Amino acid sequence: MAIVDVDNRPVPLFPPGLGRPVLLWNLSLTRTAYISPARPVTPDSDSIPPLGSVTVDGEEQLFASSLDPLALIPVQVTPGGLSAMASPAQAADQLSLLGLMKDTTGSAINTTLGAPGQDTTLQTIHTTLGIPSQDTTLAAIPAALQPALSSASLVRQGTTAGALVHTFAAASRLWALHLSFACATDASYTPALANVYAELKTGSGLALTLVELAVSDVKQAINGDSDQGYFNPIPVAAGNTLLLDVNNGAGVLGATLRASCSILYSSP
To answer: How does pLDDT run across 41-82, given as a tens digit for each residue?
Structure first.
């Protein structure tokens, strides 16, 4: 594994003819990296979005560029890697840099209803329950409605009918989840269409999300991912489990399958 700093000049990411898949992970929170098998790298070249990743076959040399003389993008190059997943901390940092609202009081928001700016602080909003205004400051919200989030994850899991990701010790609520899945074939693979999948589900049988891929030739590498977020979180009973199913435990001769997942939950 190596990290290559990519600027606006085409930079080779790895030598040609490695003979195995190579995972390219853009570690920048805000910048897109562009890749091409030949110079020059242009805006029409394939791209890797911020915190995004792609798996290539490693046979053809690739060059990368930020296409911006002021931008330096770290790209992690992992021979033999199949998937990558941003941590909750990286995702939070990305949201912060993109300028999305973090101040849950809403006190800094002005509307377009007129001048001067409308007072939209939560504590002065009138509800339909009567006057004076209801106390809607965050401090007045019951503690049970202010989730203290915890996380659980499982990384680079091979074929399995149901690997344990997490056991919920108490009644919980599931707020968000991510599932990534990758499949790569080597030279021993017999060319034929093969459909494979990864599924995240509860032990009680509730399917949460699924990623399906298809391969058909030797030295082919593909990946996919799924993100789910819930404004109304999914309740999970105490003692229930979270399971990762990778192709129901069935391997494919000449192919490597790997899946990773993460969740954010609160209890209660």
So the answer is: 999 999 999 988 888 888 888 999 999 988 899 999 988 877
Q: 126 with 118: CB under 8 angstroms? A: no
Topology of domain 2-79 in CATH is Jelly Rolls (2.60.120)
- Three-class SS of residue 25? strand
0.70 surpassed by pTM? no
In angstroms, the CA 135 to CA 126 distance is 9
Closest by CA to 154, choosing from 266, 247, 250, 258, is 258
- On whether the CB atoms of residues 178 and 204 are closer than 8 A, the answer is no
Q: Do domains 2-79 and 147-266 have the same CATH topology?
A: yes
| Least confident window among 45-49, 53-57, 85-89, 172-176 | 85-89
Domain extent listing, the chain? 2-79, 147-266
CATH of the domain spanning 147-266, picked from 2.40.50.140, 3.30.479.30, 3.40.50.300, 2.60.120.40: 2.60.120.40
